[in-house]
Amino acid sequence: MSTLHEGGPRGHVLVVDDELSMREYLEILLVRDGYAVTSVPAVAPACEVLARDSVDLVISDMRLGPGGSGLDVLRAARARKEPPEVVLITAFGTPTSAVEAMREGAYDYICKPFDNEELRLLVHKALEKRALRQENSTLKQRLLPGLGGLMVGTSPRMRALWHLVEKVAPGRSTVLVTGESGTGKELVARAVHLRGQRAAQPFLPFNCGALNEGVLESELFGHMKGSFTGATHERQGLLVSAGEGTVMLDEVGEMPLSTQVKLLRVLQERKVKPVGSAAEIPFNARVIAATNRRLEAEVKAGRFREDLFYRLNVITLELPSLRERPDDIVPLATHFLTRLAEELGRPALRFAPETLALMERYAFPGNVRQLQNMVERAATLSDSDLLGPTTLPPTVRGEAEPQARSSEGGEPSLGAGFNLERHLDDSERRHLLAALKQAQGVKTRAAELLGLSFRSFRYRLAKHGLTDELDEPTPRA
Predict the structure, then answer these.
(1) DSSP state of 319
(2) How do residues 45-64 score in pLDDT, each as one tens digit?
(3) Spatial contact of 56 and 14, defined as CB atoms under 8 Å apart
């Protein structure tokens, strides 16, 4: 039997259970949540569905009568070219075989009787993992031949960087990616993942600076049901759920010292202890850390543990800023425009020579991300296929104070009553407001534009009494 939610499917779920009442119950529950559902009573018809249809998730009872078991369904699912995730249902108090099935590749298991919300969350997480795996597969196809747009540019430092990426990708050593905000640290981490043997497994980026300490540990290490208020179910942490994939710890320099201690032990032992658990769980994921801070300076300032720094800093991939490789500006801009022209169906889009000349002279404090956004802005605003200088922001055209690469400049005017602290505070406040306006109220984006971590950005907003700007973002156009 197949059923479909009226609003269109969020994913195709195959339910396998020999009890008609359980199949009907799961169908109703899943269809209400927007999933397309096919239900069958045994292993043989389940295998037929898997061979015939595209299935995103299988929910199967472990015991299916004389025709086979949930393990047989799992093996059939895992044999597919693009295998669905598999969740097994087992009798309460007898999860041993389900745990064994997880070692064979099942996503998770749930015990009868189960809570509806617990099952809903499990389905959501399983499909989320599958979507990430499919995204990684798509990225691999797009990026692997020469790493596609990632390898645009011929500057010596970038050629050396990509040579190092090729060398470290096949291994399992921890990698530390450093560089200013907007230089492409996550893309480099993805390249390491995609060029290695883990490419078919999940790549899970995680921002260490966006969450408080308790949530941070729960997300990374997992938690047990009832371990804290709101912990209504057991949850795997990212390090375990990534399987043989890669976890990227972005903004690792923002991690609280107490969590740093726990992360160090986790990396040394290759085991995690979920919040509220006395038992440790081994994990196999590779860890890539990234930061826009100088961790050596953070260590000296006492904000980052020296032993964790050395544990993370096995291999360092340092991204140069765009102003350090100005020869790559035109190739990158041309690449972004070519890709955008395909998406917009405007193949004739091109830059005027004077437009490229202006971009070459600009410092790009937001690095490659700023350049990409600038190209998108130019293509969107231009009525012509020839993108002239007027499509660039005023600062790039020199109509406002330019971000020059040179540090030379005239002496500031210091009139009577000048106060440096007040001047710096006023300047900081103006830049915060400008970033919020440019980011249309999206605070994480505004922090990136300023080269700040989210935590530092939030602190500065509060310092200047701009919390209303944070709570009530400018609506998107």
Answers:
(1) P
(2) 999 999 999 999 999 998 88
(3) no
